[in-house]
Amino acid sequence: MAAITLKTNSTSTPATAEQESAVPLIETKGLELFYGTSKALKGIDITIKEKLVTAFIGPSGCGKSTFLRCFNRMNDLIDSVRITGECRIGGEDIYAKDIDVIELRKRVGMVFQKSNPFPKSIYENIAYALRLHGTKEKAKLDEVVEKSLRGAALWDEVKDRLHSSALGLSGGQQQRLCIARTIAIRPEIILMDEPASALDPIATAKVEELILELKKDFTIVIVTHNMQQATRISDYTAFFYIGELVEYDLTTKIFTNPANKRTEDYVTGRFG
Amino acid sequence: MSTNSATPTGRRFVRTTTDYASGIWSGVTLLATALILVILVIIVGNVAINGFGNLSWRFVSTIPEKDFFDVKSAAVLPMIIGTTIRVLVMTVFVIPIGVITAVYLTEYARSGSVYSRVIRAAINNLAGVPSIVFGLFGVGFFINFFGKNIDVLSGASSPEFGKPTVLWASLTLAVMTLPVVIVATEEALKAIAPGLREASLAMGATKLQTIIKIVVPNALPGILTGAILAISRAAGEVAPILFTGAAYFMADLPTHLSDQFMDLGYHVFVLSTQSPDIEKTRPILYATVLVLLLLTFSLNAFAIIARARMRRAMRAGH
Q1: What SS3 string covers A167-230?
Q2: Is residue A164 within 8 angstroms of chain B, CB to CB?
Q3: Residues 6 or more apart in contact with residue B57 via CB below 8 angstroms
Q4: Which of B196, B202, B204 sits opposite A118 (nearest CB)?
Q5: Chain B within 8 Å of A134 (Cβ-Cβ)?
Q6: Is A163 within 8 Å of B196 when comparing Cβ atoms?
Q7: A193 at the B interface (CB within 8 A)?
Q8: Is residue A173 within 8 angstroms of chain B, CB to CB?
Q9: pLDDT in tens, B129-171
């Protein structure tokens, strides 16, 4: 087992050069979301920067997962959901009438809390979306499957059984397969909804290590209940509480010197 | 309290009462279950013992003469073929229509919408309609409406579809078994983890692609269960085909969907009600019923094997 690369965040340092120079990619203004008549997100303004890891934290039911699902419009699947306000990715309003949700989801991938590989072979799990989006040649598929599995640090473990069922993998491997499947279609952004919450500490460490690696190529937004995880992997952290964005800042700042009392109480474990 | 205090030996959990109620109840449940088994054994055993002796290769491989009440010349080949064809044709129609309906109800209809509630009520009511009513419906709708109009449009000189046919009998059975297929498919679709649909959609698959490539393939074993139930129900049904396709006697085997056919179930009915001498006909009757049971079992076995293979293939990841 390789040691986990920990970010230096023990002191409340100012932003690193990479954090400083990162360009805004996702922006919301006054974003509100309703389930029927109840307001689940109460006017959220946020700017998420490119090729950094941004963590969403907060107690259960605070709206962080719901907010995450606004970025790839997964909330569209729920009939009663209504969204107002602005949500832009790369400057483009993703809720505009002429937006193709399919194209959006190709650019904004998602990894779910519960690993959800298809009951197909490992190879087919990755080839599925590639085929849907028009890749037909076997050689090209083989190449992308290998590259994606390597990218998800899974290649060495599964290279000899690519054509056996993905359901035979361990929980951690399944989750990394889901990550491989997501990066196979080369999105710009990867949304992760508590990707390690069902994994044991060793599998979690591998996924975290992977996230830090993926950051070089992708913008990652991750919902987590695990504070240590947020400190280990994220550059920025947003704290949500009952549908509001309470505080959003550099992760080092949020965890060492938060501006808001509620944030402090939450990250120090006094409530939540 | 005395019950809480230790007995002279220091034991506190010694049983002092006997739970008769539980014993009796478990006996009752066992008896009720045994009853089913006994009934099945009596039916199958009786048919097997009395029918097996009269079964012969000639009996199942010959087209009988007009007088099929004679033990020497009685045979059931046309009935085996007729029943098999009508069950297969029915399956070809009922599976796609049932599956598409179930896909609409689970994947598209807003749950609780007026329209989907109406459809569900219709399905439940359809399941409760007596089979003879389906038979009459088949005459009115398929033969008199569709069939006669097809004949008019095609300019046929003699009725081609405006009469009982294999096609109309099969379609009538398909209408009858539709609820079974819809309900079984719906259950299978609901049992698919929502995560699979989300995963597919999140990768930029359309809803249609998700349904065709992920949802329906994963529901296939459940869909086949629906097919098995439909086949079981339809194979032995007589009432729906009585007026829509079954023939009392045909000298030739059916060759077109517009032909009539002889049917095992209907033949059992004919043998037991039309025979000039029921005592003499009884051996034929037993043998025919045995063939009907065996045919139903084999049609079922066929679907069950297909389902088992499919499950294995899915587990292996293909």
Answers
A1: HHCCHHHHHHHHHHHHHHCCCCEEEEECCCCCCCHHHHHHHHHHHHHHCCCCEEEEECCCHHHH
A2: yes
A3: none
A4: B196
A5: no
A6: no
A7: no
A8: no
A9: 999 999 999 999 999 999 999 999 998 888 889 999 999 999 9
**In this complex, is the C-beta atom of A178 within 8 Å of any C-beta atom belonging to chain B?**
yes
* Chain B: residue whose CA lies nearest to A69: B202
The CA-based angle A229-A175-A40, given to 5 degrees, is: 60
Closest residue on chain B to A80 (Cα): B110
ipTM of predicted assembly, 2 dp: 0.88
Partner residue facing B206 (CB), from A102, A120, A164: A102
Q: What residues of chain B lie within 8 A of the CB of A166, using their CB?
A: 317
Instruction: Give CA–CA dist A263/A238, Å, rounded.
Output: 10
Contact predicate A213/A190, CB 8 Å: no
Specify the residue for token string 């009853």. Answer: B35
**Which residues does B contribute to its contact with A (CB < 8 Å)?**
110, 193, 195-196, 198-206, 209, 213-214, 218, 314-318
Instruction: Give the strand pairing for A189-193 and A108-111.
Output: parallel
Selecting from B202, B214, B315 the residue whose C-beta is nearest the C-beta of A118 gives B214
| CATH 1.10.3720.10 is right for the domain spanning B59-315 | yes
Long-range contacts (CB closer than 8 Å, 24 or more residues apart) made by B285-290: B286/B47, B286/B50, B286/B51, B286/B54, B287/B51, B287/B54, B287/B55, B287/B59, B287/B74, B287/B76, B288/B51, B288/B76, B288/B79, B288/B264, B289/B47, B289/B51, B290/B47, B290/B48, B290/B51, B290/B52, B290/B55
Query: CB neighbours of B228 closer than 8 A, spacing ≥ 6?
Result: B300, B303, B304, B307
Q: Which of B200, B203, B216 to mutate to test the interface with A (most CBs of A within 10 A)?
A: B203
Structure tokens at B203: 């990768």
From chain A residues 74-93, the ones with a CB under 8 A of any chain B CB are: 74, 77, 79
pTM: 0.83
The verdict on a CB contact (< 8 Å) between A128 and B203 is yes
- In contact, A16 and A28? CB cutoff 8 Å: no
Residue-wise pLDDT for A41-77, tens only, equals 999 999 999 999 999 999 988 999 999 999 999 999 8
Q: Which residues of A68-84 are buried (b: 16+ CB within 10 A; e: fewer)?
A: bbbbbbbbeeeeebebe
Q: In whole angstroms, what is the distance from residue B143 CA to residue B267 CA?
A: 22
Using CB atoms, which residue from A116, A164, A167 is nearest to B198? A116
Taking all residues of chain B, what is their mean pLDDT, rounded to a whole number? 91
Contacts of B195 in chain A (CB under 8 A): 112, 114, 116
